[in-house]
Specification:
Layout: E1 24-29, E2 46-47, E3 50-51, H1 52-63, E4 68-73, H2 77-84, E5 89-92, H3 101-110, E6 117-121, E7 124-126, H4 129-132, E8 140-144, E9 154-158, E10 164-169, E11 174-181, H5 183-194, H6 205-214, E12 220-222, E13 229-231, H7 235-238
Parallel strand pairs: 1-4, 1-6, 4-5, 8-12
Antiparallel strand pairs: 2-3, 6-11, 7-13, 8-11, 9-10
Length: 239
């Protein structure tokens, strides 16, 4: 099976507030849903009448005018390819069981044809306001100060200019596992991923952002108005 599948269809009934931004959106869904007691990709978990990945694709396509949507798959990749190959572009992380999300981010980033790049974890359920109420003229991350994310999740320190300074566990302001690269940060990401060493592939996604900040990247911190977002980590999260 080829690693790349070209998007050939487009959703209808766009938002009246659709954003005309020429961007790529990468969904990282290479892992297995073992913590949720699922033996298939977590993105294939059914929530009401849609799989999680179907919901994400629907919201992204609803909010943007013809976005390039890339799903990075790994575990049981054929299940996702079979169901979504005519809707989105697929990139396969063939080393999903030996690497961490940094490798999936790198694969998506190196295979986009855009110069604006948004990535998100594949286990997120979110509403349209999460993406509509953002400014895409500069690089940013999405944060949570209202306890939508559990204390055990990765947090971020924010300076007086609302810029992210460091990602780590044990911080009150949580990172919502979404990040957007454009301008200088896009160039920094390109430089980082072009020089990726084997040990870099073991980094978690927040460690990629820390590395970029150490290289001079700057990320605004946004908490969108009316945002609803949940990390689907356990069975009770689906409810």
């Amino acid at each position: 099976m080829s690693r790349f599948v070209t998007k050939i269809t487009q959703s209808k009934n766009k938002s009246k507030e659709v954003q005309n931004i020429d961007l790529s959106v990468a969904i990282l869904c290479a892992g297995v849903g073992s913590r949720i007691k699922s033996y298939e990709p977590r993105s294939m978990i059914k929530i009401v009448d849609k799989t999680l990945l179907e919901h994400q694709v629907h919201i992204i396509d609803y909010c943007f005018d013809d976005p390039e949507i890339i799903a990075v798959v790994g575990f049981e990749s054929q299940k996702i390819i079979k169901r979504f190959s005519d809707k989105i572009r697929i990139v396969e992380n063939q080393l999903y069981d030996k690497t961490n999300p940094s490798e999936s981010i790198r694969l998506a980033f190196n295979n986009t044809c855009k110069d604006k790049f948004l990535f998100m974890h594949g286990d997120l359920w979110f509403n349209a306001d999460t993406l509509k109420n953002l400014k895409y003229d500069k690089s940013f991350i999405v944060v949570d100060t209202q306890k939508r994310f559990e204390n055990k999740e990765v947090g971020v320190t924010v300076d007086s200019n609302s810029k992210a300074t460091f990602f780590s566990y044990g911080l009150d302001t949580k990172w919502c596992q979404m990040a957007f690269f454009t301008g200088k940060e896009f160039k920094i990401a390109k430089n980082l991923f072009n020089k990726f060493e084997p040990h870099h592939k073991k980094m978690l996604s927040f460690e990629v952002l820390n590395k970029m900040i150490s290289m001079g990247a700057s990320f605004a911190c946004y908490e969108p108005k009316n945002m609803q977002i949940v990390e689907i980590d356990r069975i009770k999260d689906i409810a």
